[in-house]
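Morning!

As promised:
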Amino acid sequence: MKIGLRHIRYFLVLADDLNFRRASEHLHISQPALTRTIQHLEAELKVLLFERSQNFVRLTDAGRAFQEGGRRVLNGMEATIDLTRRVSIGEAGALRVGYTDFAIAGALPELLKQFHQKHPGITVRPHHGVTATQLEELQDDKLDIGFITGPVRHPGFQSRVVQNDRPICIVPEGHHLAMRRSVTLADLAEEDFVHGPAEAWAHFYDYLFPLCRRAGFQPRIVQEAFNSVGILGLVSCGMGITILTESIYDFATGGLVPLPISDISEVMVTEAVWLSDNLRLPTQQFVDFLAQQDIG
Amino acid sequence: MKIGLRHIRYFLVLADDLNFRRASEHLHISQPALTRTIQHLEAELKVLLFERSQNFVRLTDAGRAFQEGGRRVLNGMEATIDLTRRVSIGEAGALRVGYTDFAIAGALPELLKQFHQKHPGITVRPHHGVTATQLEELQDDKLDIGFITGPVRHPGFQSRVVQNDRPICIVPEGHHLAMRRSVTLADLAEEDFVHGPAEAWAHFYDYLFPLCRRAGFQPRIVQEAFNSVGILGLVSCGMGITILTESIYDFATGGLVPLPISDISEVMVTEAVWLSDNLRLPTQQFVDFLAQQDIG
DNA sequence: GTTTTTGATGCATAATAGGTATCATGAAAA
DNA sequence: TTTTCATGATACCTATTATGCATCAAAAAC
C-alpha cells in the first residue's frame, strides 16, 4: 500500500479535531473508515502518529512533524493545480523576450511595463542578444519574442515595427568634429570607426553600409567591442567615432558628443519578431497586445 | 474523482519519457492503465497536459507548470515521510531548553555543543528565563529541560547538577572594598545591594539569605535589575555592590572588581531539571546524554 | 448499575485501478 | 503501392482498495 493525499487529508483533520468521530463527520465518512485509514497510514510509515485511548487522542512528536509536512504537501498540491489551470487559460505563464541594445534603450521597457499591467500573471524573462542570435533562438524555441534590429522577412517569421531610430554620429570630446552642429556621411569618410563584431552586428551593418556606400566611402572599422556600452567606452577613450542611435547615446556616462547626420533620412527600425507557429498563449497575448499599441 | 500522488508519479515519468509505452514500462504498469490515468488527471484538472498524436507526445505549457509543481509536491512528500520516521526514532526533533544567566555563563554552551555533535538531528530551541518561570513552563509543557538555580525537590521533577559556582562579591572600581584581596560576609553587612526582583530571583535568595543571616545581617537591596547584566551595570554605576558568580563576572565589560568571599564554602548549584513523565524522545536523549557527562 | 461515548473490528458492497485483447492511425519499409 | 510496425485510445473483465453498517470492549458520565 502507498501513502496518498487522501491519507494526509484525513490525518490533518483528525490532528485538528483529536477525535475520530468528529473528524469523520467533518470528512463526511464513517468513523471506521477513518480509523482504518489512519491505521494504514501508520502501518505504511511504520510510525505511531497518535496516542489513543478511549479518553483522549493526541499527536506524538512524529505526528506533529507529519502534520507540518503534510500541510505543506497539501498546500503545494493546491497551488500547483491552481497554477496549472491558470497557465492553461493564459492567466499565468512565462514569456521569453530577447532584446538588443537598441530595444532596451528605446521602447522595450515601457512596452514590458504596460504588458505586465495588462497580464500580471505572465512572468517576462528577458534575454539579451544580438539580432542574429535571437533569430536562431526563436527557431530553436529558446525565445518567444525577439526585439531585433532591421526588417526581417523570412518565411515563418512575423514581425511588427516597435521603434524607429535616427542614427547619430558620436565622437569623443575634443575630437576635431566635436564643435560641429551636424555632419554629413561624407564628412566621416576618413574617420576611424568603432563597432561591434561583423557577424553579430550583421543587421546593423546591412543598414549602415549602404548609406555609407551612397556617400562614397566604406567605414573603416578599427576597433570592435561586444556591445554598445563597450563601443561608447572605446569612443570616449578616443579610439575612434561611431554611428549609433540617440537612445543609446543617452545611456552613456559622459565625455561624448552627439552629432546629427544631416543627410540620413532612413530610420533604423527595431522590430518585434516571432515565429508564426508559436502557439504559446503568452506569445499570442503579447502579439495581441502589440497590435493594440500605437507606435510612432 | 480526486487527484492523488499516483497521478503525479505517473505524470512525471511520462513527462520525462514523452512516450506512453516506455513510461508504462518504467512504471511497471500496462500502457492502457497509464493512458487512462493521464486522461483522468486531465479531466479532473480540466486542462490538457500533453499534446499527443501517433508520432509525438509533448508537454503543453500547463503541463510544464504541473511538472514543476508536481515534482515539488512529490519531493515534499518524501521529505515529510523521512522526517517523520526520523523524529519517531529520535534522529530528528526539537528540544526546548530553558536557561538562567548562571547556566548560559557557565556549563550550558559546552553541554549543548556536545549534545549537538552527538545528536545532530535535534534542533535545540533555547529560552531564557529565571528559575521560577522555567519550572512553570516545564509543567505547562512549554519546556523539555530547564537549567535552573538551586536544588529542586518537587515531586514529578527529576534533576541533575551540572554546575557548581562559588559566589563572589562584585564592587565597582573605586569602592572602599575594591582594594581588599577578599572579604567576609560580615564585611558586607552595611553595604547597599543590587539584585534581581524578589519573586523571580527567589531561588537565588534562598541560597544567599541564609548565608547572610548566619553572618548576622540581612542584605539591604536598594536597586533591582531584570537580569545579571543589568545588575552588573548598576554596580558599575556605583549604585551598590552585589554577590554573583565568577562566570557571570566574566561576562561583564569592565569597571568592576571581583572579591572572593572567604567564609562561604557552600556552592551555588545549577541543575538541569525535567518532568519525570516527559516522554519525548529528544528529552530522553538529553537526559541520557547528561548521565554520561562528568560534572565537576 | 445503566447509559453514553470512545476507538477498534468483521463483513459485505462500492469505487477505483489494473491487465488483456483490440482498434485506428500514421510512419517507415518492402 | 502494399505491408509492417509503432503509436495512443478503447472495451471488457478482474483485482485491489475504500467505505458503510453493525457490533464490540472499555472507560466515563449519570
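Chain A has a mean pLDDT of 91.

Hope this helps with the figure draft.
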